Amino acid sequence: MEQTSDPPEDVKINLNPTERRLLNELKDGKRQTPKNLSAVVGDDVTRNYTANALRMLEKKGYTKSPGPADRSGMYTISDLGRIIVDNLEVYTRDFRDEFDTCCRFVLANQPTDAEEVRTDILILGDEDFEVLRGASEVDGLVTGEDLTNEEMSTKQADRILYRLFFFGLLEQRRGFPVYEVTTRGEQILSQRKQQVVGKVIEKSL
């Protein structure tokens, strides 16, 4: 499984429409050149623009140069790029950094015996469960402001809500940071409660 490092600080984690189209064209794993890709993604995209976009995607770690030459002029999708593509439907510009972080988290937590990259990894911390539980207790739609308290700022709550949305535990309404708990989210909460109750019973025996 490939390892990836964080992108350089001067690289903005933002995916414009052309970059998203390029990643979708590369998701089959085949090697492509900027010339071929510019012909596929649209008449409004030049070869030079495509080449620059591919270099930027490579800096982000979403694509790679397959070689054998150091700069072969060809590109293929990386393992991180596969995770990015599979989650593009939950990409939002306002939470682009959190989107990138979630995708890198999925890559970093791949099973050691996995032959191919898995994009369905789900690992939640106590903070995530606390926000998910809080969201389930709100009557109606929930925002970060609804969960703000002395220990959690609105910005922090918004970030965690998006993370739960990324993993399919919350549903976002009309592209705005307004959420409600999904069936999967309710199932995860139920499993969590059973685990906690089981531990309490075990300790009392």
Automatic annotation (TrEMBL):
<dbReference type="InterPro" id="IPR036388">
    <property type="entry name" value="WH-like_DNA-bd_sf"/>
</dbReference>
<protein>
    <submittedName>
        <fullName>Uncharacterized protein</fullName>
    </submittedName>
</protein>
<dbReference type="InterPro" id="IPR036390">
    <property type="entry name" value="WH_DNA-bd_sf"/>
</dbReference>
